[in-house]
Amino acid sequence: MILCSCNVLSDRDIRERLGPNPSRRSVKALFRQLGWEPKCGRCMRNILTVIDQQQAASATDCSGGGSCDSCHADELAA
Ligand code: FES
Fold first, then answer.
1. CA-closest residue to ligand 1 atom 2
2. pLDDT tens digits, 32-75
3. What residue ranges do the domains of the chain occupy?
4. How many other CB atoms are there within 10 angstroms of residue 14's CB atom?
5. What pLDDT, on a 0 to 100 scale, did the predictor assign at position 20?
């Protein structure tokens, strides 16, 4: 499904580029890093949803080794 019509980016494109355990701050970095230009911004909410889903998947995969955001939830909340 196309999430960003300005840059013709699908949810799959975005998931592949986010990598494991992305940060919500990754949206601007993602655009910058790949040379995409956020234009209208209508896609931001959907991209954040994809990031949230990716984070949830990473947390589910956590083995408790202290390397995921869930393991550092107290630090992130501070
Ligand atoms: S839809 Fe992504 S910048 Fe316009």
1. 4
2. 877 888 899 999 999 889 888 888 887 766 666 666 655 665 66
3. 2-77
4. 23
5. 73
Q: Is the pLDDT of residue 11 over 80?
A: yes
d(CA 75, CA 49): 22
**Is residue 19 predicted with pLDDT exceeding 80?**
no
Report the half-sphere exposure of 46 (CA within 13 A, side-chain side): 14
Q: Which residues line ligand 1 (CB under 6 A)?
A: 4-7, 38-43
Round to whole Å and give the CA distance between 60 and 66: 13
Scan for tokens 């909340």, then name that residue. Answer: 77
- Distance of alpha carbon 10 from alpha carbon 15, whole angstroms: 9
Q: What is the pLDDT of residue 8?
A: 92
Distance CA 23, CA 29 (A): 10
